[in-house]
């Protein structure tokens, strides 16, 4: 029997025609919408992930094991992903550092979340999300990473959930030949995220671990590093934790002329100057609210029920940018004033801008 070989391109064009036919039959819902329901992680779909497991780490932190979709491109240790999840019917996006070591593109990844008081997404992820849930993901990004050639001497200065990007670096094995010191603060020994694993690394001599239990010993004063880690200024240092710790570390390293050796990762922006406050009108939503000069426009909109686009919520991803139709807003990070008149085409990052008088946002 002779097999008939279709001419080149015939199969593809047949597939295209069948797809168009399927689109006609399934309109107004597209075939890709049905595919999203049955194969949400397939190649070519928007990047999503399936929660495989939720593993408690401490009383208020948990690790989410996620199977990313086929279009996941992998990550470099220390990078973060944006994760979108529906909470009470509203899609919320937040950033989380990848805590798993890099592996093959098809492998599962993990993020570790610490629930913060009144935190919408962190409490949902730590306490309510169930295995099987599909979440939205973005490709990994961020420059809080190790250089290609690992430094011979490294200091990690972390507190609370700030251990997460560092856990990814330690697990990657990239620092196997380096002299690594980790100074980590948490309220108690039981609150240290990955406590058992870090203590195990210290026992095996892979790192020197200095734990600071702040409920008993008080907050770490960065100046104490002079005695805790006398050579800290000679080390390449990665610091991640509360704003107070990072601000103090930056001042300490800068005052001693070694700012270039300190790399920091902030989970929220430092507010330098508040705006003056004012009424914010979300023009397409026909909503007007009074907002204080310390309230990001993003929060003002969300609190008023406006469906605001967002991402990292700290001025790095530009996922929250909206046209400022008119009015004045102030950048909370540097106090810079931005004004606009209709037609100016000015766009602002709503997560780090507050009203500085009456203003109108197009949404
Ligand atoms: C690059 C990057 C990486 C991150 N990696 C991690 C991670 O690995 N693990 C992790 O748990 N979190 C991480 N975060 C923080 C995370 O994105 C969320 O900000 C955090 O989970 C709080 O979100 P929420 O919805 O629960 O709080 P929201 O409902 O947004 O805020 C509730 C209240 O808490 C305050 N708040 C917001 N964020 C913080 C914060 N980080 N610390 C203290 N108070 C806050 C708000 O001002 C508000 O008053 C990261 C953030 C960034 C930018
Ligand atoms: S949400 Fe990322 S820049 Fe505003």
Task: Note down, in words, how this protein is organized.
It is a single chain. The chain is of the alpha/beta class. The chain has 3 domains: 48-137, Beta Barrel (Elongation Factor Tu (Ef-tu), domain 3); 153-266, Nucleotide-binding domain of ferredoxin-NADP reductase (FNR) module (Rossmann fold), CATH 3.40.50; 278-361, Beta-grasp domain (Ubiquitin-like (UB roll), Roll). It has 9 helices and 17 strands. The strands form 3 sheets. Strands 4-3-6-1-2-5 form a 6-stranded antiparallel beta sheet. Strands 12, 13, 14, 15, 16 and 17 form a 6-stranded mixed beta sheet that branches. A 5-stranded parallel beta sheet has the order 9-8-7-10-11, with helices on both faces. Strand 8, helix 5 (195-203) and strand 9 (208-213) form a beta-alpha-beta unit. The longest helix is centred in the first third of the chain and has 17 residues, at 10-26. Residues 1-5 have low confidence and may be disordered. The structure holds flavin-adenine dinucleotide and FE2/S2 (inorganic) cluster. Flavin-adenine dinucleotide binds at residues 80, 94-97, 111-114, 116, 118-122, 142, 161, 164, 267-268, 312-314.
